[in-house]
Amino acid sequence: MTDRKTVLISGGNRGIGAAAGKAFMEAGWNVSLGMRSPALPDWADPDTVQVAAYDATDPASPDAWAATALQKFGRIDAIVANAGIMVRKSAVEATDEEFASLIEVNVNGPRRLVKACWEQLAASGEGRVVIVASLSGKRVKSAISGAYSVSKFAALGLSHAIRHAGFDKGIRATAICPGFVATDMGLPLASGTPTDALTQPEDIASSILHVVNLPNRASVSEFWVNCLLDDSY
Ligand SMILES: NC(=O)c1ccc[n+]([C@@H]2O[C@H](COP(=O)([O-])OP(=O)(O)OC[C@H]3O[C@@H](n4cnc5c(N)ncnc54)[C@H](OP(=O)(O)O)[C@@H]3O)[C@@H](O)[C@H]2O)c1
Has residue 1 got a pLDDT over 80? Predict the structure, then answer.
């Protein structure tokens, strides 16, 4: 087995996922980026960064991605389940289809990805799972974020459930909970705040890298990051 650890990052083509991919590469990891339309980013070293097909709505996708990553790198040490969608509707306004797609992409997708990599994560005795949840998984900020919030409460619960399922195997799971981040998703939601005052994707990337690098004896179950003063968060 190679000494270089391998991380799988979903939604690695833009936003937080791309920033995380770059941060892990620069920190000396092998990186497998899961994307709906795979294309090697211009910052990526093809020796240590791989792109693979991944669609969170396709149940067969995680197994195929894990096999592709194993073929190139020989091991899987960490998962960053980052791919996610937002529907700007209240829990009452969202259609059944919209609500189902929020749960499918934001909750079922991460669950299936972790499941596909479980054996590998356990094999090292120090596997890591990061679920990119949200502060919307901690509190409902507004009516219009309601449907999304329900999915992120579930994503947060998933992260805690994985933490329990994997603890004895040395797997540590963390829910990263950002407020507004300057990405395609976050910018339209935070129009009242100057872009450079928003949390940047690179800030979330370094938070992810930080928790992943902590030893088994320092498990962080939730990591909250906010650019605004927001009650307790
Ligand atoms: N930005 C914020 O303010 C904020 C705050 C808290 C939490 N978050 C969470 O952070 C994560 C990343 O969001 P972001 O801000 O980086 O947003 P983004 O720039 O909109 O990126 C979303 C990523 O998810 C991917 N994705 C969406 N549906 C997918 C599917 N069915 N299968 C595979 N990939 C899919 C997108 O791929 P395509 O390019 O193919 O669409 C894209 O790579 C999300 O889980 C989001 O909920 C964001």
Answer: no
Cα-to-centroid distance, 189 and ligand 1 (Å): 14
Q: Whole-angstrom distance between the N-terminal and C-terminal Cα of the chain?
A: 41
Dmax (CA) of the chain: 51
What superfamily does domain 6-225 belong to in CATH?
Answer: NAD(P)-binding Rossmann-like Domain (3.40.50.720)
**Residue 113: predicted pLDDT:** 98
User: Per residue in 10-52, pLDDT tens?
Assistant: 999 999 999 999 999 999 999 999 999 999 999 999 999 999 9
Q: Is the pTM of this model over 0.85?
A: yes
Rounded to 5 degrees, what are φ and ψ at 31? -130, 125
Please state the atom number of ligand 1 nearest to the C-alpha of residue 199: 3
Q: How many CB atoms lie within 10 A of CB 106?
A: 27
Structure tokens given for 192: 């009242």
Spatial distance between the Cα atoms of 100 and 97, rounded to a whole number of angstroms: 5
Ligand 1 centroid to residue 183 C-alpha, Å: 9
- Which of 8, 10, 16 is the pocket-test mutation for ligand 1 (most atoms within 8 Å of CB)? 16
233 in catalytic set: no
At 195-214, the pLDDT tens digits run 999 999 999 999 999 999 99
CA–centroid distance, 102 to ligand 1, in Å, is 11
Closest C-alpha to 137, from 159, 115, 153: 153
Gap between the Cα atoms of 203 and 225, Å rounded = 9
Structure tokens, 112: 């299936």
